[in-house]
């Protein structure tokens, strides 16, 4: 069992390294969270410990006939669990770290984050009513906003008769010169107010997380496509697969909410801006359009995908899709040296685009 456990660790490390080098290092946190590998490793180590303890007890004549029979039954049970776990783990480790599996994990994490934000676009607060004003609260540490405790902000604001306007959503890079939030009082002066609880409600870390940052998943998918389109890799098929994944995610975001899905604001003193579809499209398509401009099959698929988004019910998504379609067409016109290739891209575009 110790040998198998050692082999498991080696296989997991190799899979993690493969995911970081073939996809993107930003996907490592999803790959390392693979439950099947962790359960298998814990099963193998547990079986090893059980065998050592049982062997020691038998060698010292600790058990009588009944005890030996029970030990035999337990050994057979654990042996069966180990065999089942090993077979299941072999199938999992064969997929772990592969490009397709990594893309699937990123898509699942991004879709879950998009669903949560779609059902609570303002994080259960209220929409921003006016331009940000009031007393600015700046970050002390430099890093990315990972989580905002809206409930804590609501309690603090209700206690002090304040309103808090969020200026940095999860995923925003926080620095000392960028406000995290603005505080406005219902009445009175803010000079003596202690804003430490407001600052404490913002969790700031060194890296972005998938849970509360839907745009991060789009960035990671775009990075995977960009690496696939690099001259060293030259894998346009992966980029085309990523484009399809992005369209599925945007379709999920664009799907209408039912009455049961919509949530009424719970935190009436916290104003939270919604995610801008233009920023989401920038995260998703800019790198692909730039790196794939000289590859006709990628450029054509990108135009078809953006044309699909251009028929969205959301006018902001339509406008962003139209903008990126025109921009990608301009890039393709510069990068494609064969006139027929550009005509194919132009024919797939939602718009006529630049002249030949």
Automatic annotation (TrEMBL):
It comes from the Bacteria. The chain crosses the membrane at residues 41-58, 70-90. Residues 1-19 form the signal peptide. Keywords: Membrane, Signal, Transmembrane, Transmembrane helix. Pfam families: DUF2254. This is DUF2254 domain-containing protein. It comes from Shewanella glacialipiscicola.
């Amino acid at each position: 069992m110790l040998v198998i456990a050692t082999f498991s660790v080696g296989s997991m490390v190799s899979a993690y390294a493969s995911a970081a080098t073939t996809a993107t290092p930003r996907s490592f946190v999803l790959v390392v969270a693979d439950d099947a590998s962790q359960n298998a490793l814990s099963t193998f180590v547990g079986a090893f410990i059980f065998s050592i303890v049982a062997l020691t007890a038998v060698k010292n004549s600790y058990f009588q006939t009944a005890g030996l029979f029970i030990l035999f039954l337990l050994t057979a049970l654990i042996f069966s669990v180990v065999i089942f776990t090993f077979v299941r783990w072999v199938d999992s480790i064969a997929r772990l770290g592969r490009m397709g599996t990594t893309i699937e994990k990123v898509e699942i994490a991004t879709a879950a984050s998009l669903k949560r934000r779609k059902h609570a676009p303002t994080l259960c607060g209220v929409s921003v009513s006016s331009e940000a004003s009031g007393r600015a609260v700046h970050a002390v540490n430099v890093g990315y906003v990972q989580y905002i405790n809206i409930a804590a902000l609501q309690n603090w604001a209700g206690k002090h008769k304040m309103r808090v306007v969020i200026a940095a959503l999860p995923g925003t890079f926080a620095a000392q010169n960028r406000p995290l939030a603005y505080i406005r009082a219902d009445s009175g002066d803010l000079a003596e107010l202690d804003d430490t609880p407001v600052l404490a409600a913002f969790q700031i870390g060194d890296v972005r997380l998938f849970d509360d940052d839907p745009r991060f998943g789009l960035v990671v998918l775009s990075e995977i496509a960009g690496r696939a389109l690099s001259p060293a890799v030259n894998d346009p098929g992966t980029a085309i697969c990523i484009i399809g994944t992005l369209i599925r995610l945007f379709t999920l975001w664009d799907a209408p909410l039912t009455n049961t899905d919509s949530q009424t604001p719970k935190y009436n003193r916290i104003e939270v801006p919604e995610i801008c579809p233009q920023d989401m499209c920038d995260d998703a398509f800019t790198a692909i359009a730039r790196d794939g401009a000289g590859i006709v099959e990628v450029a054509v698929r990108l135009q078809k995908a953006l044309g699909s988004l251009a028929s969205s019910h959301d006018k902001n998504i339509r406008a962003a899709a139209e903008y990126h379609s025109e921009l990608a067409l301009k890039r393709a016109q510069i990068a494609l040296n064969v006139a027929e290739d550009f005509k194919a891209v132009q024919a797939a575009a939602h718009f006529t685009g630049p002249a030949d």
